[in-house]
Amino acid sequence: MENLTNYALKEWNIAIQALEQGETIILLRKGGIREQGGKFQVDHDKILLYPTFEHQQPTLLKPEYANLVQPVPSGWHPETVKISSFAEITDILSWNNSQEESLINSLTNFHIWNEIFVRDRLQFKPQQPLYILLLRTYKLEKVYNIRYHSSYGGCRSWIELQEQISLENMVPVLTQEDYDQQVSTIDQILQAS
Q1: Inter-CA distances, 39 with 2, 29, 45, 144, 173, Å
Q2: Distance between CA 126 and CA 119 in Å, rounded?
Q3: How far out from the chain centre does Cα 146 lie?
Q4: What pLDDT does 1 receive?
Q5: 158 - beta bridge partners?
């Protein structure tokens, strides 16, 4: 039986590109406006990566990523969406606002965002923690161009695609050894806090 899924995590297109190229294993989340109960939570740890464009802001990215983003008007979405990767969330770490902001900035070398983004995320819903997701990313055997559906819109993290995507013959972006080394280093940085 073929291994299929339709469960996806919405994330900035530039972040998904960085995950697919092995340039990061980190996503930082607080949750979208339409999250259930207003809080971010992980319901599935094995997910497709669904690229979004609307909220990408070059001013919140490190310079080497900022120039790769083409801003789009509010409410814009492509007619078709490219699904080319799958990820396993291996670790979910949380960061409380009572902890030093400078310590989370010590993870700067491991993600694509700048200090403004980190500060904004910490200040958004300050009573809630910032979640640091560590993802082992896999390239799908082929790129799926799926038609956009209105159920994919809105400020929410999790969606169910209208079609199933095959997970057969996926290829990990990083070797298990490389991935484990990055996880260990990140864990050591956070433990030092």
Answers
A1: 34, 10, 17, 30, 30
A2: 11
A3: 19
A4: 37
A5: 9
